[in-house]
Amino acid sequence: MPRPRKFRESDVVSSASEVFAVHGLAAATLDDLVRATGLGKQSLYNAFGGKRELFLRALSEDREEATRAVSEALGHDDASPLERIRGHLLRMAIEFSSSDRRVSLTTRALVESTGAEDPLSTATKAGIEQLAGVYAQCLDHAREYGDIPQDANVQSLAVYFVAVTRGMELLGRAGVGRGVLTAVALDSLRVLQAQRAEEPGARPPVRE
Amino acid sequence: MPRPRKFRESDVVSSASEVFAVHGLAAATLDDLVRATGLGKQSLYNAFGGKRELFLRALSEDREEATRAVSEALGHDDASPLERIRGHLLRMAIEFSSSDRRVSLTTRALVESTGAEDPLSTATKAGIEQLAGVYAQCLDHAREYGDIPQDANVQSLAVYFVAVTRGMELLGRAGVGRGVLTAVALDSLRVLQAQRAEEPGARPPVRE
DNA sequence: CAAGTTTTTGACCGTATGGTCAATAATGTA
DNA sequence: TACATTATTGACCATACGGTCAAAAACTTG
Question: Is B145 left (phi over 0), alpha (psi -120 to 50) or beta?
Answer without folding.
Answer: alpha
